[in-house]
Amino acid sequence: MPTYAILLNIIGVVSVSKNHKGQALVEFIFILPIIVLLLLGMINVGLILMKKSELENKVVDILYVWQQQQASIKELETLFKKEGLEINISENTTTSFVTIKASEKISLISPIQKDYLLEVKRVIPFEQ
How far apart are CA 5 and CA 7, in angstroms? Predict the structure, then answer.
């Protein structure tokens, strides 16, 4: 503390102790939007990872049923189709590959982006 402030404090012109009431509240209000955005971001990432895992499992189920030759491609598309989930299975006979693509649009709780499109794609070789 400068010497002139000490002298002014002794005389009683200036008080050295300042009133800090409400300082923590103001700092909290500055930090609150950042904390809320981080929290919403974590919830959104968890939601995306959960839905992506569900799509991965759905594609594995489709592969299992198809490899066991229990259903045709059209039957698989109708069997595993649900509202909001789109499944596309295509056979390429020239390269002997099957492409299975599952996509779903999910709605996020983020104020920045509302809808997010998830896609899972598998390309596997097959024998005729």
Answer: 5
To 10 degrees, the CA torsion angle through 24, 29, 31, 34? 160
Find all residues with CB under 8 Å of 77, minimum gap 6, and list them.
Answer: 87, 88, 89
Q: What is the pLDDT of residues 21-78, one digit of tens each?
A: 788 888 889 999 999 999 998 999 999 999 999 999 988 888 888 778 767 777 777 7
- Closest by Cα among 109, 110, 106, 111 to 120: 106
Half-sphere exposure for 110 (CA within 13 Å, toward CB): 19
- Half-sphere CA count of 81, side-chain side, radius 13 A: 10
Structure tokens at 115: 């809808």
